Structure formats: structure tokens, C-alpha cells
């Protein structure tokens, strides 16, 4: 029995299923590589495989920029783009192509990694709301696992340390050296209220007042400015 040839459109659909819709797409006529940003010859499997390997490079590139806190629009810089293309021998697509085709995949990969990390473990969650530079409310969520044989991270906030001392009186409470010195300095301020008011008034006179600073230098050029107190 003669072998029935598949239609070109069916072959294109099969290639998209094989390599993933995040890498390839088709309109039943041509095969488009999202990683390269161009059409590829679907009749030669080597071209399709090459495009697939390049997409992994772009996935890693996108994740590296995100982890390092580097905006993707930095790739529009000609010097940076030329450097990457020269030494990686890879085509660097535009920022919009990376954002459309790889941000969601990297996000899903990170979420899957977090799920695997916290699966079947007791977890803790911290949620904090903030306002971004464009005045949008953003909720930052931090999650971790509770380990019975590992100490938690040290807290650097005096308020948290004071609260934990009363909530967990049986725990060994170690005060940070900087916080201890700060509490001593606060006690010294209470012992010398006149000196405290003097330093406070000097701070009010010269802090964020360049005209007063210039006047002081003009009247007493040989006298240095008083040191700025850290209060």
C-alpha cells in the first residue's frame, strides 16, 4: 500500500507541537521562529533544530537579565547588542520579542521551581504592599519553608526584635551590637537634654539650607562647619 503524504499544513502543525508553541508558530503556510524573529525552512529538520537550540539561549539570556535586575530594553543598546552577538554567535532579538515570547515562560519556570521547593513542607508567607514609581499599588510576596534543624535569618529591625522578645520569652535573644550602641546613645541624650536641644537646633539651622551654610562660611571662613549629627 502506497504511503500517503501528509499535507504541508499538517507537517507545520506537527512541528509546532514537537518544539512547542512558545518557540514556533504557523499560519498553515509558513513556519515562524519566535526566537529568531523570522521564517524558517520547515522542509529541512536541521533548520528547525537550530532554531530550537537558539530559543534556549534566549530563554537563559532573558532570565539572566531579570535575575540581575537589568531592564530588557538595555538590549536595544547597539554596543551591548553587538558585543553579545559577536561573542555568543547568536542573534539577539528586540526587547519586545523577548518580552512577548519569554517573560511568561520564565515566570512559569520560577513559579514551578518555588512550588517544588515548598511542596510537602510547612511554609511561611510575608506580604508587603508598596507603591511603584508610577503610583501603582504592588504587593510583594515572600515565601519560604520552616526548617526544624535550621535557624531563621537574623532580623535587623529593632521593632521586630523587641516584639519577638515578648512573644517568645523562652528564646535566646541576641541584640545586635549596632542596636545596643543606639540604645546607649538614646539614654545619653536623655541624661543631657540641654546638649540634645543644642544639637537639634544646629541641625535645623544648617540641614537643607545652603544659603545659611554660605552665610556661615562668609562670616567665619576659618571655622569649619559643625559635623552633621546622625539622629
TrEMBL record:
| InterPro entries (UniProt xref) | Cggbp1 (IPR033375)
| Protein name stated in the entry | DUF659 domain-containing protein
* Gene Ontology cellular component terms for the protein in this record: nucleus
Organism of derivation: Trichinella spiralis
Which domain of life does the UniProt lineage start with? Eukaryota
- What does the record list as GO biological process? regulation of transcription by RNA polymerase II
What GO MF annotations does this protein's record show? double-stranded DNA binding
